[in-house]
Amino acid sequence: MDLVRIRTIADVIHNEGFRRLAKPLRRVATGAVIKNPCAGRYVGDLSELYETGAALGKLLGETAVAQLVGDPHSYGKAAIVGASGELEHAAALLHPSLGAPLREAVGGGRAIIPSAKKSGGPGTTIDVPLHHKDEMYLRSHFDAIAFYIDDAPAPDEIVVIVAVTDGGRPHARVGGLKLSDIERKDDQT
User: Fold this and answer.
1) How far is CA 15 from CA 20, 23, 91, 169, in A?
2) CB atoms closer than 10 angstroms to residue 109
3) For residue 157, is it within any domain?
4) Which domain holds residue 118?
5) Is residue 186 part of a domain?
6) Contact 181, 27 (CB under 8 A)
7) Which of 28, 36, 157, 166 could cysteine-pair with 67, CB 3.0–4.6 Å?
8) For position 188, what pLDDT does the model report?
9) Residue-wise pLDDT tens digits, 38-60
10) How far is CA 161 from the centre of its chain?
């Protein structure tokens, strides 16, 4: 992997919806800019990107989780491919191998890791979707965090992002499962 740089943002919410939170919510996104080894050409075998995805899952997952105050609740992943790449390059980074090391970093992860991918140039913003790490139907944790790097990706780069939180949306009240409902389900796989 040809790593160019890493950027981490931490969004700490103290007050939302005209009401103070009992405990501040931290939403963290960490993104790595890497050179795209497949830029500018068609590559049939993308397994090199699978290995890079695994390394980034570990690096970005551990970096993001270290910024949390409480235990990890939610996670998500995303990628922005520069103009000389293709969306399949983002898919190869995000899907086959990034998940297992990210799940290890958050201490679990029985639920699918939501993802987003797009093509763009420097400063492209992407909303990284978030779900609860162990129950994807926990509505209180459906969220997203915006991420961008002002000068990336260049045409031959890819930005790969991992996002985590230490709680659900502030003052969530749209029904469905509650956090206490899923903590009792030890038999989920």
Assistant:
1) 4, 10, 36, 12
2) 19
3) yes
4) 3-170
5) no
6) no
7) 28
8) 45
9) 999 999 999 999 999 999 999 99
10) 5
Q: Sort strands 143-147 and 19-35 into parallel, antiparallel or unpaired.
A: unpaired
Report the domain count for the chain. 1
Checking DSSP bridges between strand 115-119 and strand 126-132, what pairing results, if any?
unpaired
**C-alpha closest to that of 123 among 188, 33, 40:** 33
161: left (phi over 0), alpha (psi -120 to 50) or beta: beta
Q: Which residues pair with 35 in a beta bridge?
A: 157
Q: How far is CA 125 from the centre of its chain?
A: 14
The alpha helices in 38-187, defined as continuous H runs, are 47-65, 87-94, 99-106, 179-183
Handedness of CA 31, 165, 90, 118 (dihedral sign): negative
For residue range 99-135, what is the model confidence (pLDDT) as tens digits? 999 999 999 999 999 999 999 999 999 999 999 999 9
> And the tokens for 78?
């995303």
CB–CB of 152/185 below 8 Å?
no
Provide the β-strand partners of residue 78.
116, 161
Q: What's the distance, CA 8 to chain centroid? A: 11
Domain assignment of residue 177, yes or no:
no
Is residue 179 one of the residues assigned to a domain? no
At 148-170, the pLDDT tens digits run 999 999 999 999 999 999 999 99
- Enumerate residues 6+ apart whose C-beta is below 8 A from 56: 1, 32, 34, 93, 98, 160, 162
